[in-house]
Amino acid sequence: PHVTRREDYAPPVWLVPTIDLVFDLDPARTSVSATMQVELKEGAGGPLRLDGGGGLRPLTVAVDGQPAEWRMEGDQLVLDLAGRAHEVAIAVEIAPEANTQLMGLYASGGLLCTQCEAEGFRRIMFFPDRPDVLSRYTVRMTADKARFPVLLANGDHVGGGDLDDGRHWAQWRDPFPKPCYLFALVAGDLACRADQFITRSGRTVALGIYTAQSDLPKTEHAMAALKASMAWDEQVYGREYDLAVFNIVAVGDFNFGAMENKGLNIFNSRYILADPDTATDADYDAVAGVVAHEYFHNWSGNRVTCRDWFQLSLKEGFTVFRDQQFSADQGSHAVKRIEDVRALRAAQFPEDAGPLAHPIRPESYLEIGNFYTATVYNKGAEVIRMLHTLLGAERFRKGTDLYFTRHDGTATTCDAFVDAMEDASGEDLSRFRLWYSQAGTPRVKASLVHETGGGRARLTLEQSVPATPGQRDKQPMVLPLRLALFSAETGKRLAAQMVVMQDAREEIVFEGVSERPILSINRDFSAPVIVETDRSPADLAFLSAHDDDPFARYEAVQQLMLDTLVAGAARGEADHRPVIAAVRDTLADAHLDPAFVAETMLIPTESFVGDQMLVVDPEAIRRTRDALRRDLGRELLEQWRAIYAANHSNRFEYNPTAKGMRRLKTIALGFLAVGGAEDAAALAFGQFNDADNMTDRQGALGVLANGTAPERETALAAFYDRYRGDSLVLDKWFTTQALSMRADTPEQVERLARHPDFTLTNPNRLRSLVGAFTANQYAFHDPSGRGYRFLADMVLAADRLNPQTAAKLIPPLGRWRRLEPTRAALMKAELERMLATPGLSKDVFEQVSKSLA
Ligand code: B3K
Ligand code: ZN
C-alpha cells in the first residue's frame, strides 16, 4: 500500500477556481455532473490529475465543450491539456444506498447526505481531493419532491422550483472558496427548527436545525448551544459568522461526531438530539460541546484551512481548545478541566504509549482516516492551551487575530500558526515547536528538599520523553508547570509560580521557607505530562483538603487512590485508610460544589490503573479496586446514605448544581451497593422507576447491571421495552451491559451481538456494544481469549462494510505487549489472523500491521 509522507508535500499543479455541480438525486442511482474551470499554476506544468474512488468511472469527459481523451491511472482520471486554462466537464453515476462506508454521498434513514472529510469527495466526483485546492461552488439538485422535499447545500439558497413528474429542484451557491472536504448536500423529508442570530455588526443569520418531524422537540438544547457559541466566538475571539444561513442536519448513520461543512453542518444525531427522558447530563454537555466545536470550525478550519492532512491538528487541536474554553465558560472551569484531563488520560496517554503513537503532526500515513486521533485532537488542544498559558490570554488573542488575518481564505500549516503566535507576542517559540514533532508523553520527576537550616526549599525537576515508534532519541520539551508550596503546619500557601521547564534537569530554589512545605505541581494540568513525586499519602491527603487550585485538589485525591490501587494490584493488599479519610473529609466539606465532589469520588478506572503497571494484571486490578470500593462503601455507609438523600430530587432541572447533585447521588448509590447496604438494590430500582430523566435512570440501571439482584433483569427488560424504538437510547442499553462488572459479561456481549437490534451497519450501535466492551478491561481480557476473538471477528465483519469505523476498534488489541505472556500471545494471534485475512481494507491493514510491528 502507498505511504503518504509529510516531507513529500508539493503544491497543486492545477487549481480549480470554480465548480458547478448538478445532482439528479435518487438513492439507487444518482447522476452527478461537474463543470470546472481549471488553471495551471504559474510556472507549473503537467497533466490534470483528478482523484476518484469507490469504483467511480467517468461516463463522459469534455474539455472546452468537446469530448476529450482521458485515461485512468489507478483511481485517478488523467487529462493532458493543451493550454493553461480550460473548462472541464465530467459526468458520473453513483449509488448512495449501496454506500455502506458512509463516505461520499450515502443514504441514512430515508435521507441522502454527504460526508467528504477527509477523502470522501472523490467518491462523488473526480476532483483534486486535497485541502489546498479551494473553489467556489454552485450546486443544483433535483429530486422527487414527495420523498425529498428539503434540498440543502453549502452557502445561500439561490433558486428552486417544481418540475413535472413530481420532481423539484434547488440551487445553492457558496460565495467562500473552500476545499472539497467541506462540500455537503442533504436531501430528505425533514422538519426544521428555525431561529435567528444577529451578529455584532447587525447582520441577521437564519438558523435551522433539521431532523425528522418527531425529533424536532429534542433540538431545543442544540439550538441554544449554537446561539451561545456564535455570541461567544464574537466576544472571545472576535470572530463573526459570515453567511446569511447556518444549517445543521442530524443523521442516524455517521462515522464520527459531526462535520463542519461550510454553512451546512451534518451531525451524528447523538450530538443534536436531547431531552430529559432520553439524554443524560453528559449527553447534554456533549451536544453543546460538539455544536460549538463544529461552529467554531467556521473560522478555525473553514476560513483558514489545512494545507495538507498532516496539518490536521492546526484546525482540530485549536478547535478542541476553543470548544473546551467555551464549555468551561458555560459552567464550571474546574469540572470541565477535570473532565478534559480524564478524557486525555483515558484515550490519548495509552495511544502515546503504544504502537500507534504519533506526533500531533504525523509524518506519514497509509490511510488518513486513521489519524483522527486523541493525539491530533486532544493532545493537540493541550499544545494550544500551553501557548495560551505561556503567552497569557491577551497576547494569545493577538496571535489568533494575526493568524486569522494573515491566512484568511487560504490553506496553511501548523508552523504558520506558531509563527503568528511568535510575531504577535515577541516570544521565541522555536523550542516549543518540538510539541508538533515529538510523540510520547513526557515524564517529570519532581523532588522537593527542605533545608531547614537555611529556610530554603530546593525543587529538582527532571524530564524525559519515552521512545516511540520511529523516534528513539528525544529532546527535552518546553513545559509550563504551575507550582505552589503549602505549609504542612498551617495549610497556608507559601509560594506559587509558573516554571517554564526547558532542560532535562532544572533546580528551583524557594527562599524564606521555614515551615515544612508540601508541593503542588502541574496545577490546572498546565502541561500534558505524567508527574512523579515523592509525596507521601499523608501529604496527598493534606493537599486534598488545603490546595487552593481545584484541579490540584482533585488530583491529590486521585493520586492517593491511584497509588493505593497500584500498590494493591502489585502486592495483593494496600492500606485503604488514607483514601477513606480523604474521601470522608471531601464529603464533609460543605463549601465544595457537588459536581466537583462527584469528580473527586470517581475511583480511577481499571484501565488507568493498568496503564501505570509494567505488566497489566486485569484480575488483580479488579480485585483490588473492588476491595477499595467495598471499604469506601462500608466505612462511609452513613455518609453515602446522607448524600443520597440530600441529593435526591425528583424534579428535573438542567443547571450545573442540579447536574452535580445527580452525579453525586448515583455515585453514592454505587457505594451503597458495593458497601453492602441491604436496601441498595431496592433504592436503585426505585430510582430507575421513578426517574424523570435519563441521568438518573441510566445511572440506576448501571448500578443494578453490575450486581446480581433480581431487579437487574427486570430493569434491563423494562428499559428495553420503553426505549426499543429510540436507537440512541437503545445504544445505552447495549453499552450498560457491555460495561457490566459481572463475570459473565463476555458471554453476554457475545449474545448481544446476535440480538435482532444489533447491526454492524450503524456505527453508533457498533461502538455501543463492541467499543464499550473493549473499554471493560476485566471482561475484554478474559483469560480464555474469547474477548479478543470476539473483537477480531467484529472488526473483520465490519471492515467489509465500513473500514473507517472498523479500524477505530483495533487499538485495544495493540496493547498486547503490556499483558502477561499467555494473554499477549492470544492477542497477537488475533492480530495475525486479521492480517492474514484476504481483502482487508487499508484502514484496518494499517492499524493491525502497526500494532504487530
Ligand atoms: N472534521 C470532522 C472530522 C472528520 C473525520 C474524518 N475521518 C469533525 C470535527 O472534528 O469537527
Ligand atoms: Zn473538529
Structure commentary:
With 853 residues, the protein is of the alpha+beta class. Helix content is 41%, strand content 22%. The chain has 26 helices and 31 strands. Strand 14 (156-162) and strand 15 form a beta hairpin. The longest helix is centred in the middle third of the chain and has 34 residues, at 374-407. The chain is globular. It binds (3S)-3,7-diaminoheptanoic acid (B3K) and zinc ion. Residues 293, 297, 316, 319 line the site of zinc ion. The site of zinc ion has 4 residues, from helix 3.
Q: Report the helical percentage.
A: 40-55%
Give the DSSP E fraction (strand runs of 2 or more residues): 15-25%
Helix- and strand-based class? alpha+beta
Spatial separation of the terminal alpha carbons: 16 Å
- Mean pLDDT comes to 98
Please specify the SSE layout and strand pairing.
Elements: E1 4-5, E2 14-24, E3 30-40, E4 48-50, E5 60-63, E6 66-67, E7 71-73, E8 76-79, E9 85-94, E10 104-108, E11 111-115, E12 135-144, E13 150-153, E14 156-162, E15 167-178, E16 185-188, E17 191-198, E18 204-211, H1 220-237, E19 245-251, E20 258-259, E21 264-268, H2 281-296, E22 304-306, H3 312-330, H4 333-352, E23 364-365, H5 374-407, E24 410-412, H6 414-425, H7 434-437, E25 443-451, E26 456-464, E27 479-487, E28 493-501, E29 505-510, E30 517-521, E31 530-533, H8 537-546, H9 550-571, H10 577-588, H11 594-601, H12 606-611, H13 618-635, H14 637-646, H15 656-674, H16 680-690, H17 694-705, H18 711-723, H19 727-738, H20 745-752, H21 763-775, H22 777-780, H23 786-799, H24 803-807, H25 821-835, H26 842-852
Parallel strand pairs: 2-12, 18-19, 19-21, 22-24, 25-31
Antiparallel strand pairs: 1-23, 2-3, 3-9, 4-8, 5-6, 5-9, 7-8, 10-11, 11-16, 12-15, 13-16, 14-15, 17-18, 20-21, 25-26, 26-29, 27-28, 27-30
Helix pairs in contact: 1-2, 2-3, 3-4, 3-5, 4-5, 5-6, 8-9, 8-10, 9-10, 9-11, 9-13, 11-15, 13-15, 14-15, 15-16, 15-17, 16-17, 18-19, 19-21, 23-25, 25-26
The structure holds (3S)-3,7-diaminoheptanoic acid and zinc ion.
